[in-house]
Design a protein that fits this description.
It contains 3 helices and 10 strands, in the order E-E-H-E-H-E-E-E-H-E-E-E-E. The chain has one domain: 3-Layer(aba) Sandwich (Rossmann fold). By secondary structure, it is an alpha/beta fold. Helix 1 crosses helix 2. The structure holds guanosine-5'-monophosphate.
């Protein structure tokens, strides 16, 4: 079976494409700790429901709530995503719905990366139908230059350029989610930007 280096190597090759270390594990964890502390302060005396968007947000969700010192609940939604391509298909549909009732609840939507904003725009409208008391969005990554849809992100881990990234939950053709750090497609690769 193929083995991959899940530690913080400086670069990884995926086929003939080169990805370079962009956000190392320590930097991710330090920022996630700050986000968790900020959410803890802002949701004092509340019991928020964290709703993760599968699959990409599963590691971020886990590390984020480990830094939230409050009673809280979790659930997950899954939208159809890029499939195996590196560019957005421009359409979105729900593949897995909520399993809990969020009416009157304080919801924090947990996303791995906001690119065009299409998914978050869809989620914001979907959440409104469930009549929660409040909805805030936290995204580990945001590509501000790629935004095409109206999407209000309340907590942002890192703003990054419009380049393709993998690792820490983010996939390349469904693989490489288990990398502990985030890697960016090198400029020299065929599909690099
Ligand atoms: P949006 O709907 O904002 O255009 O895209 C959001 C989704 O696209 C993310 O949840 C993620 O699944 C995928 N995505 C966007 N940019 C990247 C990227 O650079 N790398 C990976 N692996 N997925 C991305």
């Amino acid at each position: 079976m193929p083995r991959i280096n899940i530690d913080n190597s400086e670069e990884i090759m995926i086929g003939d494409e080169r990805f370079v270390l962009y956000l190392p594990e320590e930097q991710l964890q330090a920022r996630i700790k700050e986000l968790g502390e900020e959410i803890t302060r802002e949701y004092e005396s509340k019991v928020p429901v964290f709703i993760g968007l599968l699959n990409g947000s599963f590691l971020f969700m886990a590390d984020l709530i480990k830094n939230v010192a409050l009673d809280c609940e979790i659930d997950f939604i899954r939208l159809s995503s890029y499939g195996d391509a590196k560019i957005s298909s421009g359409s979105v549909k729900m593949v897995k719905d909520l399993n809990c009732d969020i009416e009157g609840r304080d919801v924090v939507v947990v996303e791995d990366i906001v690119d065009t904003g299409l998914s978050i725009n869809y989620i914001e409208r979907l959440m409104e139908n469930h009549k929660p008391a409040s909805v805030k969005i936290v995204s580990l990554l945001l590509k501000p230059e790629s935004l095409k849809y109206d999407a209000k992100i309340d907590y942002i881990g890192f703003k990054i350029p419009s380049k393709f990234v993998v690792g820490y939950g983010l996939d390349y053709a469904q693989k490489y989610r288990n990398l502990r750090s985030i890697y960016v497609l090198s400029e020299n690769s065929e599909n690099g930007v």
